[in-house]
């Protein structure tokens, strides 16, 4: 016992040790960036298992992104291995919700093999629903989709939304919400927000089901607690129940998901809802140099605070923070790529020690080009989703229909891909027929009454499709499901279809490669899933895959030596020795749509998150001139730069400033050195 104590606790500071060992009542750890909040969680999991003898299967830890969950798993695996760790749950809120729905599918009134709609599917459904009512331009569709999502995050039912509506627009959106829910149910589908909302609704309605889940979670831990929304908080409250054994950690200064319904006030509600809550604040930062930390603290002091926090660091003063003013965005990208190469050539840093952060995805494009031209390997997170590609969506629709033949959305997407000459008139008649009888389109195809309303040839085409498709399903159930999927893709002759529809053979080949990537990752997901749940099949694997993409958007899992390119949002919780932040300008950071007070504070927190990712070197860059909407515009430096401690900044190329000849000379020499070693290499 003493040995375990020593192993798990000796390297922690007093406050951290307290936080790990306090287990008989609810605990909130509230602390700034880099103070070891996530470390407390991982250490505490090990402590619960080894120090307190709690079997791992009774412990659940939740966080927000898959990347964070994976990192947490790795950190725990260093402390607890093998049989001891068996059954431990470390997941995202959404995959926990998916698990609950999957296991309680009947109590929820859904059928097994439900479909999971991502934002794209959900918007398509909204658009279809609007079509029958009013004009359906994409702005309107987006707005209504956002309303529905917010309502769900706030646990507001369609009926409540309708009574609460204050104007015509909101009322209309609320009506669409009601229709939307009905359709989802008919399709046996759930959307992303349902993954949290449905379990909450179920638990509140059904105490027996809740009791079962409470009995299976004896200790709950939540990371990044400041980003929980109303429904997530309610889920936490329900799961911990009377036992109230939980630890949540968070930092109100890093709350950056208000736009997705996050409620940092949840930190305050905890104290009200759990009167015996302990609050522990951590004050030592183990990540960043003193200069970086000071910059972060000075900046965030401009925001109002729920809790006061002090942070200090023992990591040395460190280098000044660089601020590079570049002539234009091209120079900015090139300068960053150049610097990375230079540092790498000096042999002290690896590529993966560098991260380049930006406010929005499109800012990465130029940088990608420069990195490619320098042959610097990189990986990009939070970019365009793999699953938003047409070919991937096509095959996904086939997969969805395989596991859930009632998914009419999927049916309509693929019925003419590849071409089967089933026209819109036929489909409309089929749909009317199916709606009248309350059955799905695929089911309706076999109904006898159809002969009356459809042309013989049309009906035959439909039935031929169904016959073929049922065989595919049978195959997938009988033998190796993934093999059945492979055969289906081949049988479809999807390749030929891609070639007919692509501008060049190369394009078609790339698309086909994406399809096989999809099938491969399905296989991997299934294999991994079956390690924990031997009974898991195609249904679970597909849901997992969609969920992973929604959360991670094609974030590669490789740990190879590559520069990280990520949005500020995606960087949360991570750390890197060198951090570049691009486009520190007005209209970018703060973003042009967020100049009113609340939004501005959130932008400041985003900047705070960015700064605090850096361990040793932080470089902020801006361009004096930038292209926007095809025009060149003059930019101005972000107001946040004025909020940083001037003494700790080292500017380069500031307008109206003569360039320091010595600095440029040194840079020239450095580059010469680099070229030499490149030539040698
Ligand atoms: P963020 O707010 O960014 O999520 P955090 O509070 O979760 O940060 P961690 O990621 O847990 O902080 O820790 C930051 C760094 O400090 C990590 O590299 C971690 O290994 C290190 N660290 C944490 N606690 C200690 C400690 N007691 N001694 C040495 N290093 C520590
Ligand atoms: Mg953390």
UniProtKB/TrEMBL annotation:
Protein name, per record: ATP-dependent DNA helicase Rep
Keywords linked to the UniProt accession: ATP-binding, DNA replication, DNA-binding, Helicase, Hydrolase, Isomerase, Nucleotide-binding
Entry EC number(s): 5.6.2.4
Family: Belongs to the helicase family. UvrD subfamily.
Domain UvrD-like helicase ATP-binding: 10-289
Superkingdom classification of source: Bacteria
InterPro entries, alphabetized: DExx_box_DNA_helicase_dom_sf (IPR013986), DNA_helicase_UvrD-like_C (IPR014017), DNA_helicase_UvrD/REP (IPR000212), Helicase_Rep (IPR005752), P-loop_NTPase (IPR027417), UvrD-like_ATP-bd (IPR014016)
Species annotation: Allopseudospirillum japonicum
């Amino acid at each position: 016992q003493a040995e375990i104590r020593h192993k798990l606790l000796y390297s922690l500071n007093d406050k951290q040790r307290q936080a790990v060992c306090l287990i008989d009542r609810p605990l909130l750890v509230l602390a700034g960036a880099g103070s070891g909040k996530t470390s407390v969680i991982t250490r505490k999991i090990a402590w619960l298992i080894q120090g307190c003898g709690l079997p791992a299967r009774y412990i659940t830890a939740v966080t927000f992104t898959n990347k964070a969950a994976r990192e947490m798993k790795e950190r725990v695996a260093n402390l607890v291995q093998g049989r001891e760790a068996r059954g431990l749950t470390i997941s995202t809120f959404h995959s926990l919700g998916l698990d609950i729905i999957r296991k309680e599918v009947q109590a929820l009134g859904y059928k097994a093999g439900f479909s999971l709609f991502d934002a794209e599917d959900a918007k398509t459904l909204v658009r279809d629903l609007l079509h029958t009512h009013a004009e359906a331009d994409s702005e309107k569709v987006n707005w209504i989709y956002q309303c529905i999502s917010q309502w769900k995050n706030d646990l507001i039912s369609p009926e409540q939304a309708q009574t609460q509506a204050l104007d015509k627009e909101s009322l209309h959106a609320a009506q669409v919400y009601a229709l939307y829910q009905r359709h989802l149910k008919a399709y046996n589908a759930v959307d992303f927000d349902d993954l949290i909302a449905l379990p909450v609704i179920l638990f509140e309605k059904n105490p027996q089901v809740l009791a079962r889940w409470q009995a299976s979670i004896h200790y709950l831990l939540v990371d990044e607690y400041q980003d929980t929304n109303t429904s997530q908080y309610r889920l936490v409250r329900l799961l911990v129940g009377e036992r109230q054994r939980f630890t949540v950690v968070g930092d109100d200064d890093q709350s950056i998901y208000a736009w997705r319904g996050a409620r940092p006030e949840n930190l305050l509600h905890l104290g009200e809802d759990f009167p015996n809550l302990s609050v522990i604040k951590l004050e030592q930062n183990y990540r960043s140099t003193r200069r970086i930390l000071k910059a972060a603290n000075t900046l965030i002091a401009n925001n109002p605070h729920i809790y006061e926090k002090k942070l200090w660091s023992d990591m040395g003063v460190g280098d000044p923070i660089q601020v590079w003013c570049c002539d234009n965005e091209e120079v900015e990208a090139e300068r960053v790529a150049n610097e990375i190469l230079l540092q790498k050539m000096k042999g002290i840093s690896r590529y993966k020690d560098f991260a380049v952060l930006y406010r929005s995805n499109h800012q990465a494009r130029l940088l990608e080009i420069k990195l490619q031209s320098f042959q610097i390997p990189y990986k990009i997170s939070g970019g365009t989703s793999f699953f938003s590609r047409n070919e991937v969506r096509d095959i996904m629709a086939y997969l969805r229909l395989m596991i859930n033949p009632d998914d009419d959305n999927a049916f309509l997407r693929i019925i003419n891909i590849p071409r089967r000459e089933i026209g819109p008139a036929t489909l409309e008649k089929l749909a009317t027929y199916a709606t009248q009888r309350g059955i799905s389109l695929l089911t309706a195809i076999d109904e006898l009454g159809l002969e009356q309303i459809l042309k013989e040839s049309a009906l035959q085409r439909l039935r031929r499709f169904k016959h073929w498709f049922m065989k595919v399903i049978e195959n997938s159930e009988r033998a190796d499901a993934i093999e059945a999927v492979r055969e289906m893709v081949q049988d479809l002759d999807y390749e030929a279809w891609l070639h007919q529809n692509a501008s060049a053979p190369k394009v078609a080949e790339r698309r086909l490669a994406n399809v096989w990537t999809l099938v491969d990752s399905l296989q991997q997901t299934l294999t991994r899933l079956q390690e924990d749940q031997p009974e898991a099949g195609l249904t679970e694997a597909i849901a997992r895959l969609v969920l992973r993409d929604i959360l991670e958007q094609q974030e590669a899992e490789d740990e190879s030596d590559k520069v990280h390119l990520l949005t500020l949002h995606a960087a949360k919780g991570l750390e890197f020795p060198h951090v570049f932040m691009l486009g520190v300008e007005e209209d970018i950071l703060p973003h042009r749509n967020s100049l009113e007070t609340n939004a501005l504070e959130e932008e400041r927190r985003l900047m705070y998150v960015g700064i605090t990712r850096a361990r040793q070197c932080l470089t902020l860059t801006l361009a004096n001139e930038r292209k926007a909407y095809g025009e060149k515009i003059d930019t101005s430096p972000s107001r946040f730069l004025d909020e940083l401690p001037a003494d700790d900044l080292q500017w380069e190329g500031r307008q109206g400033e003569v360039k320091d000849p010595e600095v440029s000379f040194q840079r020239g020499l450095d580059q010469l050195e680099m070229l030499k070693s490149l030539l040698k290499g």
